[in-house]
Amino acid sequence: MTEHEPIKSSPAFTTDEVSTGYGSHVVSRRLSLTIEHGTRTALVGPNGSGKSTTLKTLARLIEPLSGAVYLSGEDINRLPTRQVARQMAILPQVHEVPAELTVMELVEQGRFPHVGTLGMLRRRDDEAIQDAIGMTRLADFVHRPIDTLSGGERQRAWMALALSQQTDILLLDEPTTFLDVGHQLDLLELITGLNRDRGVTIVMVLHDLNHAARFSDRMIAMSGGDVVADGPPAEVLTPRLLRDCFGVEASVVTDPVTGSPMCIPHSPIFSDDEENAANE
Amino acid sequence: MIGASPNGHRPGGVASPGVRSRRTLVILGALLLAVMFAYVMLGPVIFGPEQVWRALVDQADEVFHRISVWEVRVPRVFIAALAGAMLASSGAFLQSVLRNPLAAPATVGVTQGAVLGAVLALAVSFGSEGALDDLNAFVPMAAIVGGLLAGGLVFALSYRRAGTDPVRLILTGVIVAAAVSSVTSFIVLISGSHIDSIVRWLVGSLGNRTWEHLAFLVPVAVLVLPLVVMAVPLANALQLGDAPSVSLGLRTEEARAITLMTAVVLAAGSVSVVGGIAFLGLIAPHLARTLVGSDLRRLLPCSALVGAIILVSADLLARVFSLDWIPFWDIQTESGSRVPVGAFTALVGAPFFLYLMRKRMR
What we know:
The complex is a heterodimer of chains A (about 280) and B (about 350). Chain A has about 280 residues and is α/β, with parallel strands linked by helices. Chain A has a single domain (about 15-280), classed as P-loop containing nucleotide triphosphate hydrolases (Rossmann fold, 3-Layer(aba) Sandwich), CATH 3.40.50.300. Chain A is about 35% helix and about 25% strand. Chain A contains ten helices and twelve strands. In chain A, the strands form three sheets. Chain A has a six-stranded mixed beta sheet, with helices on both faces. Chain A has a four-stranded antiparallel beta sheet with strand order 2-1-4-5, with helices on one face. In chain A, strand 11 and strand 12 (about 260-270) form a beta hairpin. The radius of gyration of chain A is 20 Å and the shape is globular. The N and C termini of chain A lie far apart (about 60 Å). Helices cover about 70% and strands about 0% of the residues of chain B. Chain B is built from 13 helices and no strands. Chain B has helices at about 15-40, 50-55, 65-95, 110-125, 140-155, 165-190, 195-205, 210-240, 240-245, 250-275, 280-290, 295-320, 340-360. In chain B, about 50% of the residues are buried. Classes of the chains: A alpha/beta (about 280), B mainly alpha (about 350). The interface between A and B is large, with 48 and 38 residues.
């Protein structure tokens, strides 16, 4: 997908004993993960489990407290950040949109890591922008200010920004959070298509376990900053994981249409501490 | 719906925003030339176009025509245009980079710092033999140093560990602005009979501005121009937020430092020659945004043009409405100053800003 093929012999990501957190607050300790090129990985876990922090560390949005993250074999925090931006795009969770900025003006910025200091766009850049707009079906909206779009269209516009970077790796932090179920599936299908047709490596944090199971080929479940389960969705998504990790009694069945595992949560299990707190 | 745009391979309607904004910029440019020309023609004495022309080519009918046009109005109109453009550009950068519609040179303390610099220079020289007046180039120099120091102080005070962030920068700016203003107030209190020239710095004035001041302002503008060109794509990315900027391969702290420094130099340079003009740095970018949107490749030139048009028009009004032809309304003071232009921008700016807010927050 990019002009320069990265060194495929090295995994997309390797983390070596990475501890992450904010200042003195350590979120996860000594995490060692390997994520291969061309795969779709979903990071799942309850709130505060460290999945988003882990993604942000992979994305170099935060620096590890100790250890190192390697992108295609090179320390991501030592590579020139523009070079990283040509290999990896990020769809962050929260977006502030400047008033009056149009879809086209947003998507054009995806070429920032590819162009010179003056930001002049060439034919190749225009093609990448058109491709991104086509894939996200935004052709009719290019000149609309983003703050006038619906939630689904807006998320597609941000997705188009990431796509116009034309990277081999795409990181997404809860990309479906504010979308209705139709737009959630739409976005996840788009992500699946990128992986299937263009070999883009996907790492995403997802809250919806059934979506994670259906749209990934590897699920990493985190709890309290540690990886508690890691493997194909059918092995990770179990009643036991739901009980231990999420604190819910649940059954896991097979989706009759897609064949992927699907959980049906029944009731929350309160730990003794919480029950005691509730009684006081 | 798909129409060919000038570069051939970009879709868009017949008039895409790019084409439309280019047209807007041309119209604004023409408007600026028109108000500048009107500025040179109008005043206590009104000149016709050919009288202006003869004065410019040194063939004036009377000596005072040439003095009026060449020594007073021409330098002053260029100072107004350049200072207005710089102040508005500074505001456009600040609002985008700090992601705050209320950001402006005066809300982050740069205006106050520059004013304090000028006022200090004036106050220190009071009473001594070589008392400075507005004509001395030492005053703008002190002002620009004051503005840069205030901007640097705001950045340094808001810096923590890994860097700074827009909210902390703005809050620090407001605090520094207040502190700096109180020092200025103190100087005003002890300045006694010189209060008039100090107040004109506080309010912002183009009175007595001449070639000397233009000769100070032009190099500042020329020196900052490459910085402006470099800052535009950086500010464009930063206005999307910090995480998207990192994703795009921006070193956010460095980019923020470059863009803010550009804004500080622009504002300090402007204030150092015309004083603390109210509202212009805040309103001109808002007005420009409604015309061409938020992409700084268009917003910046548009803000500059709008700022120039506003300051030239406001000073034209200030000169016309100095009203010294009404016998009992003689605002002309000992030093020959009239109504300072800053009083007009504040008077017209405040209600206009309220109108903009109402319109945009429908």
